[in-house]
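Researcher: Here's the sequence for the chain we discussed earlier.
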Amino acid sequence: MLLLRHQWGIDRFYGNLLYWSTFAGLPGFKMPAPKRKSEAEAFSDGMNHVFERSIGDILETLVARSAFADKLITENEMQTAWKTSSQATASACDWVIKAGKTCIVVDATNHSLDMFLSQGLGTAEAYATDMNRIFASADGKFGQLAKTMRKLRERGVEDFDLHPATVFLPIIALPAGGIPNLDTTDLDFQLRSRPFFEEFNGRILAPAAMTLTELQILEGMAGRRGFPDPVKTLIQWRRTCTQTILPIRFRDFLDLTLADPNRPLASRVLANNDALLGRVASLS
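Model: Thanks. This is the structure I predict for it:
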């Protein structure tokens, strides 16, 4: 079989078909958002938490095994440091990685493309609407990251020992089907984010959307012989994308820079898979 639409295959193998069928079958299901305090909302919130936990586990491993990363700062730590009153909760992204002069600002969103966009059948207008709604709206991800970066610029040296000339690297973590798997996606992401990040001009690297599977590749590289430091590799990729007008997908960058064509899988992922299969076998 010749697969003509690669995104279609990715969606079928790694997408959220089971998630959506379960979500749609629960009381309170409604688009674009489930009814408040319904079973569907509880299920959606739970899956969002699982996704964020998965990203957090990867980042913890990267920082622990990277000689280039200094520490991982969590959302709770930032909110505690920036709390202004007993009622107000400070706005902050999910995680920050301090790596020398570079500050990697990470926010996770369990967003998936609709079935037409994920299969390459959607219109350009539908794509633009989806991108703007999730990332470039008034309360979208670009704005949320910019708020955190302003706080870090103002108080990061005092609160978290950031370098006075910190350069920011915004990352939005997504599921495998969260963004089109196209060469032009990275460049489009940069252009749409520019109005939100232009105030950091000169102190920011090209922002990126990274899928869970791409972050798992970095985790697999961590601590393995023959592979460069994963955090340093991430920074080099975004620096390259900042310095050139040509978009470079993460996997293509690895193909150009790594001598070993293999992509190691993290031992933690393998252990979790074995544990899941054992749990399923015990129920049968």
